[in-house]
Fold this protein.
Amino acid sequence: MLSRRPEYCPEEGARHSEQWILKSEHFQILVIHQKRNAETALVSEKREHTSLRIMKLSDKAIIPTKGSRFAAGHDIYALNDGMVPAKGQTMLETGIAMGLPEGTYGRLAARSGMASKMGIAVGGGVIDTDYTGEVQVILRNHGEADCVFKAADRIAQLIIEKVANADAMEVDDLETTERGKAGFGSSDLNPKRSVTAREEGVKICFLQANTSENDFFSAADIGNHPRLMKEREMLSSAHVNAALTRTMNDAFLDKIRTAGKEDEKWQDRGPELDRLRESGKRLPDEWIEKDGLLYTKNRLYIPEAEALQTEIAQGCHDSLVAGHFGQEKTIEIVARDFYWKKLADRIRDYVRSCDECQHSKSPRHAKYGLLQLLEVPYAAWSPISTDFITQLPEWQGKTQIMVVVDRFTKMAHFIGLHENATAKDVADTFLRDVWKLHGLPTEIESDMDGKPSGEF
C-alpha cells in the first residue's frame, strides 16, 4: 500500500509515490489444507417425478394402456394364462413394476365389464409410492362359474389418486363434534337441518348522508306510500305483461286494412285466396286470410306503407321493453309478428338513423384507413378498369354490358353479356374482345364485383 500524505516521510531517498506503508514481511500467511475423504458416499440428486414410470420384468409383460384419452384408469394385463374358481380368488402376475408420481398412490380396481358379466372383483388393491416390486392382482370371483382368462387379457385397471402424507400425532383430547361417539347407523337417525331459512318481506331503503336518517319501507308500502309513488317508473310488470301478450288494438289493425287498399299486391293476394277457396283447391300452407287481414306463416302481412312500417319499427325498437336493441335483434323482434318485402333492409335503415342509439352507442369497427390514390398510367392498355351495366332491356338475349376502359387513352370496349353470365363467361369474353387486341394488362381495377374477383 502506498500513501502520498506528508506524515509518512520517505526514507532512503525514496519518493512518496514509491513509499510502502505495509510491506510483505508485515503479513503472516496461514495456509489451511482440507483433506477430502475419498470414501465419501455419493448421494444422487433427488428429482420429483410427475409421470407414471413402468419397468418390464418379463419379455411377455405388456405396458398398461388407456382405453380413451380421458379414461381414468390404466388397463392392467395378465402375464400368464389362468383361472379364478367360482366363489374363490386367485393372485395373478403382471410382470411389471412401477414408480408412481410423488404425492399419489395407485389403486387397483375391477373392470366394469368383468364385474357386471362374471362377478369379478379386485381385492387388496393399494400400491404405495415407494413400492417398486412386481405388481400382482388379487381377483375374487363372486359368480357361480369359473372365470378363465388368457395371457395379455385385461384383468384390472390402475387408478392414480392423490394422497395426503400426514404423520400421526398423539393428543390428549379431540374437538367436540355434533356426532361425537355415535357409531354405525347414527347418521340415519333423527336427521337435522344444518341451515334454517326464513322468508322475509321485501324492504326498500332511501339512503341519506346521515345513516341514522335512512328511511326503510316494507313491501306493503310500495302501493300507497307517497314518496314511492312520486318516483319515476322505468319498467313495471304492466310493461312486461303487455310485451308478453303481444296483442294489437283495433285502431292499429284498421290502419293495416286502410293501407292495404292502396297496395296492389296486397289487394291481389286476398282475391286469389278467395278464388282458390271457392274452387275447392287447397290453399297455400303459409297464407291465411282472417278478418280482412293476411297472415303468412302466422305473421301479419304488412302492406307497402312507409308510415305503417316506421310505426312498427318504432314500437319494437324505441319502447321501454325493447330497449334500443341492435339491428339483428330488432329484426328478430319484428319478424316474430310481422312480414313485408325487404323487412330486414327497412329495419336496418331505421336503427342506423335512431338518434338515441347514435348518441349512446360507440362504434365498434376499426378505424377507416386513408384513401389510396390510383397510380398514373404510363402506357396504353397497361392498367385498365372494368364495370358492368345490368338490368337493361333484352337485346339478342343479352341484358347487361361489360365496360372495359383503358385508363391511359380512355379508349373503351362495350361488350354485351347474358343475364346469367358466370365468371368463366366473363373471362372468355375478355380474352376474345380485349386480350386478343391489346394483350394482357398489368392491372385490372374493378368495384369488387363477384365476376372479376371470383374464378376470373
